[in-house]
Amino acid sequence: MDPRRVLLFRTVARSGSLSAAARDLGTTQSAVSQQLRLLEREAGGPLLVRTPRGTQLTEAGATLLARADAVHNALHDAREELGALADLRSGTVRLAAFPSAAATLVPSAVRALHDEHAGVQVTLVEQEPPEASAAVLAGDVDVALVFGYDGPSDDDGSLAWVPLGVEPLHLVLARDGAVPARATSTWLAGQDWVAGCERCRQHLVERCRDAGFEPRLLHESDDYVVVQNLVAHGLGVTVLPQLALTAFRHPDVEARPAPAFGERHVGMVHRPGAESVPAVRALMERLQAAASDVLSPRRAGRGTPHARRRPARAPG
Q1: pTM of the model
Q2: How far apart are CA 186 and CA 197, in angstroms?
Q3: What is the model's pLDDT at position 155?
Q4: Domains along the chain with CATH numbers
Q5: CA angle 192-195-199, nearest 5°?
Q6: How many CB atoms lie under 10 A from the CB of residue 42?
């Protein structure tokens, strides 16, 4: 049964005559009559009885009208719901972010979105980049904040990459008189180190080896608050990215620029096409605005938008 004919039948039944329905539908009475005959053929019997005063429903017509009303109402509700999503009066965006981005970029972005579009809800899960990218691929989240070292890497194109900016890495030391004015590789080789888990510390270890020494890894934590407290108590040195120091800065640590350790490129990944969803696009725009206040744009946008990022390897 053609749903368009069912809705046309509803218009005839509610208006009371073929001529009135034709005016409402912007067509001719003969066209309405033809479509009704086709519908009655599909229904297996007459739906309307023509009288000098208009039309009357048969028993079959009354039964179909109830269903036609339900179809009409469902379509009306669908139009309203879709309009609300398009106008950002409603909607949900699922976001994943590594810890320091969740503490710095996310709150201001979500607050800005809520202030402008209170009906849009953002849910957040804290995940390191490999897990966050996997969650996007699996459809568990819509957007993920991720990072990689020294620029985007090539991948299979499963995810779209939107650059947000570049953050430097800092050598973090205890603020006391025992720290030399220049921390040479020889001095660093003699220090205890605080680093993340085996996966997360890979970049740190590689750069130390490039400098000619093997770091003496004594303490392990992916929590930048724990890491800074250990350093502040003289229990080791570490390297942290700018966002981690922006989220929390222990008063008894000193952070020195450490260009030898490279830099982190921060960005968003999403499934291709997700950026056209109004609520997703609105959140991404506000994350870009939040990042512009914290991250350097230097080389962040080189090349074309990148596909899926290489799994990142340092604490968030």
Answers
A1: 0.74
A2: 24
A3: 55
A4: 3-86 (1.10.10.10), 91-165+264-292 (3.40.190.10), 167-263 (3.40.190.290)
A5: 140
A6: 11
